[in-house]
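Anyone up for a design puzzle?
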């Protein structure tokens, strides 16, 4: 409800009008691609058997909006020579007060979802969560004429001061079965596995569809040299360099959240 739709619960024709108005503006400005949020929190802004309709469309999770926003957007965007990359949040499960409904993972697999801060998050260390993410990406690729599948930078959630993400049981189970990685390396490997399997699934479905990720702007400590601050590798357990080195991603589009006057992260 920032860009689209401007408010939850608008009639289908009003939502379509908002989409076409944005597309016309993008075309006039010379854009040739857009990112469209299709999975904000384990939900769907498109027809899905895997996850419920998003409450951001209607104000109530599971309620159909009267049309398929992604299908409509792809048709209208391609008519304007604009690519559509479907944007997914891999692990966020709940950010608003709306009730979760089946087949949302918090309803079907509540033990896989943990409260952390004001939000709820899927546990990246569980096979069920990983398989659902891969299935969702493959389903989108198979049923829609998307040009790309794209992940946000929320892997493990941004850490709260003095509060660790509550995955003790998942990590203990990993150790019980002989796992020897440290908790941090184990978390990174969980994310690595999800990224790798998503890449394989998308390419096996349609090899022309690109897979990209928008990580936080700093990839790792002292990278680039002389630049310091919160980084993706230690803070969110995401090894962007490995994804590139292994060819799991077709592109990265880092999110840079600093003013040009920042001293520790000088824009130049």
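Challenge accepted. My sequence:
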């Amino acid at each position: 409800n920032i860009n689209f739709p401007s408010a939850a619960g608008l009639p289908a024709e009003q939502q379509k009008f908002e989409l076409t108005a944005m597309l016309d503006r993008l075309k006039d400005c010379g854009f040739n691609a857009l990112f469209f949020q299709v999975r904000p929190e384990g939900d769907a802004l498109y027809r899905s058997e895997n996850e419920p309709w998003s409450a951001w469309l209607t104000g109530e999770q599971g309620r159909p909006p009267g049309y398929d926003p992604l299908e409509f957007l792809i048709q209208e965007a391609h008519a304007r020579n604009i690519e559509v990359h479907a944007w997914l949040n891999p692990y966020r499960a709940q950010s608003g007060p709306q009730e979760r409904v089946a087949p949302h993972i918090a309803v079907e697999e509540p033990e896989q979802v943990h409260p952390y801060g004001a939000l709820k998050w899927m546990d990246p260390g569980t096979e069920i969560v990983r398989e659902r993410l891969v299935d969702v990406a493959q389903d989108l690729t198979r049923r829609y004429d998307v040009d790309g599948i794209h992940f946000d930078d929320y892997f493990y959630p941004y850490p709260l001061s003095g509060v660790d993400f509550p995955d003790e049981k998942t990590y203990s189970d990993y150790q019980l079965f002989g796992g020897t990685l440290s908790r941090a390396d184990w978390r990174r490997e969980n994310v690595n596995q999800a990224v790798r399997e998503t890449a394989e699934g998308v390419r096996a479905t349609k090899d022309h569809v690109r897979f990209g990720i928008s990580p936080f702007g700093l990839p790792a400590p002292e990278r680039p040299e002389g630049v310091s601050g919160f980084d993706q590798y230690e803070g969110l357990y995401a090894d962007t360099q490995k994804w590139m080195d292994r060819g799991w991603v077709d592109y990265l589009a880092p999110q840079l959240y600093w003013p040009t006057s920042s001293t520790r992260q000088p824009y130049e």
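A detail worth pointing out: The beta strands are 33-39, 83-88, 92-94, 113-116, 119-122, 148-151, 210-213, 251-252.
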